[in-house]
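Order emerges. For instance:

***
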Amino acid sequence: MNENTNAENTCGEETIPEEETISETTEETAAEGAAEETAEETAAEDTDTAEAAPEEPDPAETIKKLEEELAAEKERYLRLDAEYYNYRTRTAKEKSDAYDNATAQAVSEILSVIDNFERALGTECSDEKFKSGIDMIFRQYVSILEKLGVKEIEALGKTFDPNLHNAVSSTEDEEKGENEIAAVLQKGYTLGKRVIRPAMVTVANP
């Protein structure tokens, strides 16, 4: 009686094949592995994203860098402005000197003509009209020189100045002071502050 009962129980239980159990275990293992790989990939992506994200710059360092750049540009600008100022000053002086040199050269040529007119006016002439015409031309030349800024150097009765006068002779004269100019042999002229020709003089009591 018991044996029959056991046999019936055994027949009533469903026996699970061993192959199905192995297959389920393999699938579970694969699923777990896939989940682990997914988790690792996600972690790696998070790490890459964190590494790729730029660091926020320090405001103080940024301000310092900008101030240094501004100071460098300001110094460069000031240096450039100073160079340009020097260039303008130099070119203006060169132009002024070129003009003065050209004028001085032209005036030097005219002075010899003025000297001849003065000699002619100092000589005796019976023709007053002719002498008057010479005097008129002479005055026109003098007027031209004055417009150019040419001035006669004061000499007679003045104290000898080597910067303005050229002493070609000397004399002893009790009525004259020491180094006083006693006679003017040839007039001297200046153009502005430049001496075009020093006055040729005789100095008393040198």
Residues 1-17 have pLDDT under 50 and may be disordered. Helices lie at 2-12, 18-52, 59-122, 128-147.
